[in-house]
Amino acid sequence: MTLQESGEMYLETIYVLSQRSSAVRGIDIGDHLGYSKPSVSRAIGLLKDEGLVKRDEDGFIKLTEAGEILAKRIYERHTVLTRLLMDIGVDEKTASEDACRVEHYISDTTFDAIKAHMKKH
Q1: Full set of structural domains in the chain with CATH
Q2: Residue 2: how many CB atoms within 10 A of its CB?
Q3: Given this model, what pLDDT does residue 25 score?
Q4: Chain centre distance of CA 120
Q5: pLDDT by residue (tens digit) across 76-113?
Q6: Residue 25: burial class (beta carbons within 10 Å; 0-12, 13-18, 19+)
Q7: Rounded to whole angstroms, how far apart are CA atoms 108 and 23?
Q8: Which of 7, 20, 95, 103 has a CB 3.0–4.6 Å from the CB of 77, allowing a cystine?
């Protein structure tokens, strides 16, 4: 399954918000990303169709097992790339913003090489 950048952003956001609270709502996602309620509803519907998210009995949004695996991978990319950029002198805000752009396009091979390099140093 190939997920577009926007879908990855939603998964990562749900993951980050779920680390802060077990009750993630569409409005929380919209506030975090700066998106409208209709945009969030549409995206959540698409992610639900892909089997990556579900709504619990109270209407809260939860990652499925497959969704959590993907979200953790995306979040790891973000944090590792942010740390790498900060290590070479980029300020935290810029590093995080740039990492967010790169995390969606970098190959697994290159990312694994970056992680291995960072482990050595």
Answers
A1: 5-69 (1.10.10.10), 73-120 (1.10.60.10)
A2: 4
A3: 95
A4: 26
A5: 999 999 999 999 999 999 999 999 999 989 999 999 99
A6: middle
A7: 32
A8: 103
